[in-house]
Write a structure and sequence with these properties.
Helix 5 runs antiparallel to helix 9. A hairpin with a 2-residue loop joins strand 1 and strand 2. The chain is about 50% helix and about 0% strand. With about 325 residues, the protein is mainly α. The chain is globular and about 60 Å long. It contains 16 helices and two strands.
Length: about 325
């Protein structure tokens, strides 16, 4: 259950700097606080000893994959990103390795706690992966299921179908979808990447999607390919469209901060909208203002060190919704 911070009541929307604003605080003050949040959470990465951490920093440090806004510094991505490079990621083995990461090893102790000397994140085929699992069992000994395949994945609730055995489907999908040919002319567009990932199937499963292959997981898989260099950097509109379609943490963050009208005041199921009652263009506008507000407050060095870009901006909005219990008193 999301711990609730201050709930706006009787807010009168106002036009602030060209942006229709619904927040309880001024837009500039809100952007200042988000910037402070980013600087505070970056210190969790810079000084992992935590000797002088605030309550918020201690909370984030408990699970960087779940709470840290700096996406590429979180535990799981930090463990794999140096291995997810070109040209490997455009091969069947590269796709298989990525699917293993996103749908099996992400946020697991097997990935995070295995020493860099013993850890592997790329696999040539299914047998190679299965042999590595046996090696891990030899290193770590008896462990529960979540040690090797975290059933909560990127979310809060366990997903019963998220299991080690799904590796068979991921290997078949990597081999049967002519993956390498998609990149014969170089990096593809973000929308092309989403379409290709969404259509991954196996002969054995027929028209059924791959196990645990929801829209959020597909989006995360494509953004991983962006950082690998196989898919071109998305536009602001591309990411805003995903916020609109997913109707999840990114939208919730914009809502809580004040860039969108409070959900309780939305007219639901309006023609041409998602269930959150807002059109694509409204989400694009809100996300554009959010990204600009934070970008102008971070120095170029900070942006580089944090990995600040439009993908991290969406990721930050998700984390804000998870850290809302600290807002605004503890930031």
């Amino acid at each position: 259950v999301l711990a609730q911070g201050p709930v706006p009541t009787n807010i009168q929307p106002s036009l602030q700097g060209g942006c229709m604003w619904y927040g309880e605080m001024e837009r500039s003050a809100t952007a200042d606080m988000v910037t402070r949040l980013l600087r505070m959470t970056k210190k969790v990465v810079d000084d992992p000893t935590g000797d002088e951490f605030s309550d918020l920093q201690q909370y984030v440090a408990k699970d960087l994959d779940f709470y840290l806004p700096q996406r590429e510094h979180a535990s799981s991505r930090a463990a794999v990103k140096d291995g997810f490079t070109l040209p490997f990621m455009t091969t069947s083995a590269g796709l298989f390795s990525l699917l293993i990461f996103r749908f099996i090893t992400f946020r697991t102790r097997a990935l995070i706690d295995t020493s860099p000397e013993d850890r592997r994140v790329t696999f040539n085929n299914l047998q190679d992966w299965e042999q590595y699992v046996e090696q891990l069992k030899g290193i770590h000994g008896p462990q529960n299921q979540d040690f090797y395949c975290q059933r909560r994945g990127p979310g809060r609730r366990p997903q019963r179908g998220r299991v080690l055995a799904n590796a068979v489907d991921y290997w078949e999908a990597a081999c049967e979808n002519d993956w390498s040919s998609k990149f014969k002319d170089g990096p593809i567009s973000f929308k092309e990447g989403l379409a290709i990932i969404e259509k991954l199937r196996t002969k054995r499963r027929g028209s059924k999607t791959l196990p645990q292959f929801g829209k959020l997981s597909q989006y995360l898989t494509v953004t991983d390919m962006v950082y690998a260099g196989a898919i071109r950097t998305p536009s602001l509109e591309d990411i805003a469209e995903q916020i609109h379609q997913l109707n999840a943490g990114g939208w919730k963050g914009l809502d809580l901060l004040g860039y969108l009208p409070p959900s309780s005041e939305m007219e639901l199921e309006t023609e041409g909208t998602k269930g959150n009652g807002l059109t694509r263009d409204e989400i694009v506008t809100a996300f554009t203002y959010f990204f600009a507000d934070i970008s102008e407050r971070l120095s170029e060095d900070e942006k580089l060190e944090m990995g600040w870009d439009i993908i991290m901006a969406e990721h930050t909005l998700c984390k804000i919704s998870r850290l809302w219990q600290f807002w605004p008193e503890n930031i």
